Amino acid sequence: VEEPPLIQSTPAPPMLEKKRYHDLDALRASAMLLGIILHAILAFGQPGWPGYAPQNDTHWEVPRVVSNSAEAVGIEAPKKFSPYKLCFTAIHGFRMPLFFLVSGFFTAMLWRTRGTKELLKHRAKRILLPLAIFTPIAWITMLGGMGIGAVGAKVLFDEKSDSKGAAEKADNSITDAVIAGDLDAVKGHLNKRADINQRNDKGETLLHIAAFFAHPEVMQFLLDKGVDPTIKSKKGETALNYVEGPWNKEIEGIYKIIGGLLRLELDLGRIKKDRPKCAAILRKHESSGSRSPPLVEDTEPKRPLK
User: Fold this and answer.
1) Which DSSP string corresponds to 171-191?
2) Sequence spans of domains, the chain
3) pLDDT in tens, 141-194
4) CATH topology (fold) of 164-288
5) Is the entire prediction scored with pTM above 0.70?
6) Could you tell me which residue ranges the Acyltransferase domain spans (predicted)?
7) pLDDT of residue 157
8) By the 8 A CB rule, do 193 and 158 touch?
9) How much of the chain is helix, strand and coil, in % rounded to 5?
């Protein structure tokens, strides 16, 4: 009996073993759970915006061992740090690179097991299609919510003064209190150990802010407490530079822009009237060459604000 001829065929490529990487799943889940802590911090305000949220008045002393280590390598360590900002930076700097790494690994594994065509179909079904469907819905919802909120704010807070919202936010931080011109709130924050000599990311002191928003009483109080009027911002401007110029359309436009960014309806008439008073106070203080002694802190140990 004649045997049938052997049929030769090319060997099939080796198939990768289908394996569930439980360790990577757990790592990804842990990173997502850290997002709860991250967004809980954001609920107080964006870290890195000094004065815009209560946590920015909370600063802990840098441990001595850290300061000594920094000095040993020629680095000047800060005297205080925000625990909220430190936690936010640590989590955010870890989570996002981890997500990219894990996502790249699973994408490469999907490509090797299914091929390029199936990978593109899978990604289009899981990512592109939901994005195309829900992006317009999300935008319509957000814009609608913003519109309703703007109308509600206009109805509730429409009054001839610096926004009612500014007065309500004065309790949030000492910077908000200075913006609102609430001297009692400023004193209250100092009693809670707020830093009267703090500077924001533009290098501005509380005196700069009080001058810009034209609050003479708050300015005088800060000067009496020893805030230096000669300190310059990163742009090289003192508090006097903020209010010494004449009122014009350009300055009025700047106030409108700032008010819009801060969501405050500023009383431009009051600001226009009080700017010369602020300039006179600063000129008198500079010409006298006097500077009040800095605020003397008590001897109680510093604690973070509750």
Assistant:
1) TT-HHHHHHHT-HHHHHHHHH
2) 22-47+82-157, 164-288
3) 988 888 887 776 666 555 444 444 454 455 568 888 899 898 998 998 888 888
4) 1.25.40
5) no
6) 22-152
7) 52
8) no
9) 60, 0, 35
